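Obj.: predict assembly geometry.
Materials: sequence records (below).
Method: joint structure prediction, all chains together.
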Amino acid sequence: MEPERTGWPWDGFNIEEVELPDQSDDYGVPSDDEEDFNAEEIQKDEGFSCVVVVDNLPVIGIEKYEKLLGVLKKIFSQIGEVHEDGLYMPVDEQTKKTKGFAFIEFANPDQAKIARQQAEGYKLDKSHTFKCNLLKEVEDMSATPEEYKEPELKDFVRKDNLYSWMLDARGRDQFAVRYQDMTEIHWNDPKTGTSEDVYSRSFWTESYVQWSPQGTMLATVHRQGAQVWGGEEFSRIQRFGHSKVQLIDFSPCEKYLVSYSSQESPNPREGPMAVFNVSDLKSGQTLRSFKGKLSDFMVAGGEHKAPGVEGALQWPLFKWCQGNDDKYFARLARNKSGKTMISVYETPEMGLLEKKSLQMEHIVDFHWSPTQALMCVYQAASPDGNQPARVSLVEIPSRSEIKSKNLFSVKDVTVHWHPDGTYLALQVSRFTKSGKTSYNGFEFFRVGERNTPMEVLELEKKQEKIVSFAWEPKGHRFAIVHGDGARPDVSFYTMQDGQKGQIKHLGTLHGRPVTSLHWSPQGKFLIIAGLKGLNGQLEFFNVNDMDTMAINEHFMCTNVDWDPTGRYVATSVTSVHQMENGYIVWSFLGQQLYKVNRDRFFQFLWRPRMPLDLGKDKENEIQKNLKKYSKRFEAEDETLKSQADVEKMEERKNMETEWADFLESKKKVFEEIREEHEALVRLSGYVESEQSAQTEEIEVEEVVSVKEEKMPR
Amino acid sequence: MRPLLLKGHTRPLTFIKYNLDGDVLVSCAKDHRPTLWYADSGERIGTYKGHNGATWSCDITRDSTRLVTASADSTVKLWNLATGECIYTYEFDIPCRSVSFSLGEEYILLTTDAFMGVPPAVRILKHSKDTEEQTHEEVLLVNDAHPGRITRAMWGRLNKTFVTSCEDGLVRKFDASTGKLLNSVKIHDKSIQMMDMDRDQNTIITASQDKTSKLLDADTFEVLKTYQCDRPLNTAAISPIRDHIALGGGQDAASVTTSAGQAGKFEVVLYHKLFMEMFGTVRGHFGPLNFVAFSPNGKSFTTGGEDGYVRVHHFDSDYFEQEFA
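Observations (raw C-alpha cells):
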C-alpha cells in the first residue's frame, strides 16, 4: 500500500541528510535539572583544589626519585587519603634532576586543605622546610599580572537619599503592608483620613518583608537570597546571595545582615543542615558563614532537653549587642562535651572574642541589654539538684559578672529588659513544696543604679497565672496582666516611689478581656488588648490619670502596632482568619481614623525612625514653646482639611455631572425606540397612568362596640 | 419603622419579586412553595402549591394576573397570581433557574442548569394570554455559550437582546432572535451571583463572590462604578427613586459556624450609587443574605436570607430628606 501523501516532498528525501539539533540544545526551555548540572560542574572545578603543591623539596637526580617519592607518600598519607598515582614530581629534561617541588592529589578538597595546613613548615631536614600551597591558589597567583595596573575610577553616581522619608514636611510616618501578592508602602495621613501611596509592587518578595532597625531599608526575601531597597524610589541598594534563605536579621546599627537557610542533608540519615551568613550591608560580602547540622544550632532551652529535640530554631540565633556600633554579636552554643556556652563574636573581624567562648553550664537563654554591652544569662538548675538556677549579668568584653542571683526550685524564668536598659525584671515561676503546682513572683535588678540593687515583688495571689508583663518605655512603670479566667486583672506598678526608689502598686483594673498589653513608645498611654479569641476589644488607657479614654473593637484583631512616634496605632487582622482581613488606624486617644480591607492580609509594618538626638537643651526649648509650635501645626492641619473637603466636593460634583450626561445620552437612545416600547407595553394590556396615583387620606371612625361598666370603688 | 418579619418559609430564600404596582410581593425559597405577601403589612395572602423542588426565581405580569416560577424540579409553572391556581406547566428534564417575562409578555426567558452532561442553556418560551392556546413551544435555545451556571438572564431593550450573568464572572449579550453572542465582558474575578437592571434598562448592577459589585452600562457593558465591599456578595439592587444601591451577602453558609455572629456580615449595605461610598447598614438576618429588592416606589426594600426569613424594611422619613454629605 502506498503511504498516504501529505504535503511533504517525500521524493528526493534522504533520511541521512536530516540534521538533528544538538542534544544539548534546550530550545530555550531551561531544564529543572539545570541546577544539578551546575552543581556537578562546581564539583569538577573543585578537583583542582584537591591538589597540593609542595615546594622547597631537595633537588635530586633520577636515581633517588623513587625514594623521595616514597618518603612523601609516607608523610602525606598520614594526613589524608592520597589519590592513587596522585604524587608527581616534575623532572628537568636537561639536568635530569627534579625541579624541587611535587604535586599531591588528595581524595577531596577538605583533606587537601588539612594537608596544606599540617605539612606547611614540615622540616624534612635542616635545609628543606616544606612550603605548601593548594594548586588552585598557585593558579590564582600566577594569573595575577606582574605589573600593577591602577584601577579605573568610576564616575561618581549620586545615590538616592536613603533618609528622605525622615524629611517629610508634615512629620508623617510610613508603613508597609503586604497582602495577596502586593507589597505597598504608604504615608500614614490621618489629617486627611487616608493613607497616601508611596510605592507598590506585586511579587516584590517571595516570603516576607522587613524594615531595617532604623528604617533606612526594606528587605525582601527570595529563593536566591535577600535584597534591601531604599531611597525615594525604593531602588535596590544591595543583594545578598544565599540560596533558599528563610530568615534574615539586621544588626541594630544596620551594618550587617544575618541570613539563615536550612536544607535537607544529602544523607537521609542525617538531620537537616543549616547555613548562617553574616554579610556586610554596604558591600554585600559575606564576612562569615556558619555551617553545620541544624540540630547543633538549636541550643536554647538548656541541657535538660536532649539536643535536636527542641523542634524550632530560636530566631534570631545571633543576638546583636545593642547600642555599641554593632561591635559584638553572640549566640548560644554547645562545646564538644555537650555543655552550653555563649560564643561572642567581634566585628568586623567576625572572630570569636578573645578566641574563647563563655563556658557556663545549663544556659537556657541570654539577653543583651537594650542599651549597653551587658547580657543577662539564665542558667537552669543542674539536673542533680546540686546547683540552683542562676541569673547573672555579664559585661562584655571584660566578661566580669556584675551581679548574680541564685534562684531555688525554679520552674521557669522569663527575662524582661526595660527598653532603656535601666531595669531588668525576671518573671520567676517556682514549684511549691509538693512540686506539683507552681506560683509566680518577680525579681527586679536596678541596672542603672550603683551596685545594681535588687528587689522582690510578689503578687497577692501567688498562684495566679501571669498572662503578660510590659515595661513602660521612657518611664519607670510596668503593667502586669494576671489571673486565671477569661477576664484577668491588670495591675500597674512604679519603680520610683518618691525619693526612696521602691516598687509601689499604683492600681489594678479588674476583669478585663485582655491577652496582651501595648505601651505607646512614648509611655503614658497603654492599649489593653484582647486579641484573637477575645474578639479584639481595645481599651485605650491613660496610665498617668489611671483613666480609660476609649474602648473600641476591631473584630478578630490579631496585631496591635504603635507607630514609632506614639501618635497613632494600627490594628490588623492577618490571614490567620478568613474574614475581616485588613487594618484600622487609630489615634492614640482611640478614635478610628480610617479602615482598609484587604483580602489575604499578611503584614503591617511601621517604618522605624532612627533615633533623634536633639540634646536636652533643644528638647527643653521645644517643650517650653510647645504652644507656639502647636498653633502653627493646627493652622496647617486646618488648611489641609478644608483643602481635602474642597477636593472631595469637587470630585463629587464631577461625578454628578458625569452621571447626568450619561442619563441624558440614554434618554436619547430611549426616545428613538419610545414608540416601539410603548407598543409592547400596550400588548401586555396594562399601562401605568402618567401621573402617579393620587392617594387620598380619609379618616373613618367606626364604633366597634359600646359597653357600660361600673368602676369598682 | 420596625421591619416586618415575614415568617413563612422553612428553607433559605432564593428570590423576591414585587409586582409593578408594588402592593404585593412573591418570595421564592428552597422549600417548594412560592409565597404571596402584602408588601405593606407583611400579611401572607397564600402559597403556590405544586412544585416538587426548590424554586429559584419568578416573575409577575404587568397587570398582576399571572406569575411564572422556575424550579429545580425541572418545571416552569404559570399561576393565577390571585387564586394560586396552576394554569400551565412547562416540563423539562433539567433544573430551571431564572425566568422573566418579555415586555409585552409574549415570551418567557428561561435559564436551565447543567445536568447529567447537558450544558447550561438559555431558552425562550412562548407565552400566551389565552390559557387554551398555551403550548410548550421553544422559540430559541442557546446551550453552547456558557461554561458554568447561568445565574440570571434578563431582557434587553424591546426584547431584541438578552443579557446573562454567569458563574465564570462574565456578562454576555445575545441577539434574542438568532441567539448570536453579541458581546461578552469579564466583569468579576469570581462568580456573579445575581444581577439586576434599573427600570429604564440603562444600567445593570452585578453582585459577585469577589466582594465587589459593579454598575454597568446596559448597552455597552462598560463598568461605570465599582462598589468594594468587605464580604462576598449574593445580591444587589438599584433604588428606583434615589441614587442608592443596596448590597447583601455574607460569609458562605459552609463557613458561618466558624465565626461569631457579627463576623458573618449579614447586614444589608447601602451605597451611594454615584460616589461609591457606603452610608448605612441594616441588620437583621442571622444567615447570609440571598436577595434584596427595592419596592417599585422606592420607599421600602425587602430582603431574603439563608435563615429562611423575609424582612420588609421601610425607610424612615429622614431617608428621603437627607442629602448625602
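Conclusions so far: Chain A has seven helices and 45 strands.
To do: check interface contacts against the pulldown list.
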